Here is the input.
Amino acid sequence: MADLPAMKTSPKFIFFSDFDGTITLADSNDFLTDNIGYGQAQRKQENKDTLEGRNTFRKSFEGMMKSVTAPYDECIDLLVKNIKLDPYFKEFYEWALQNNIPVVVLSSGMVPIISALLHHLVGPSAEHIQIVSNDVRAKPGKSMNEQDGWDLVFHDDSDFGHDKSLTIRPYAQLPEGQRPTMFYAGDGVSDLSAAKETDLLFAKEGNDLVTFCVREDIPFTTFRDWSSITETVQEIVAGKRTVKDSAQDGFASYQRQHPA
Here is the structure.
């Protein structure tokens, strides 16, 4: 299990989650792009092109980050001052810690920013959250903390830059009796690779991941904030409802609210 860190305590449940716009209220990468990069209009068009298959997430995200040339420490400082946590995530996380449910962040963002925000917003206990993400490095002959001094380093060679399914799949392939029940929460185009991989998918209402799941007929349940995620997961852990029922009920509820 050495290559599956979340199995260290032999949990029966694991919660995988996107970070930006899912655990946080706003996307830190979008915030940087909109405010000190090439701007919101171009970013939204890039997201649309990715969702509709005209571009890869990797190319789109690389362009976003290349447009941000501020020193990296200034980027982190700007985000710490402006990005807020979902008001119910900390409550969920503390409950998960107490109940041996590892929380694993799978992000297309960058490790230093995610670490800084989690430490600031969650506190010291955030050190127990495993982060699997892209990274960052200084450009040759430069410091990361000078103007135009850093580059994005993708996690893998996929069209996503970080194919989140590659982290989840080895857990899913564990033999019966060892394999935990797995949850995933996400909101956008960076979560497309993870959408089919877990037992129950929470997709943030009104966002691109919902659009994708409806189009591809992938079962999901929507969430507005982490209070509903907490309620659902607690009921499943207590044996009051099944993962299958939650997925079917969530999808049926969405279809009722959004008739074709």
Remarks:
- The chain has a mean pLDDT of 93.
- The first strand starts at residue 13 and ends at 17.
- The two ends are 45 Å apart (CA to CA).
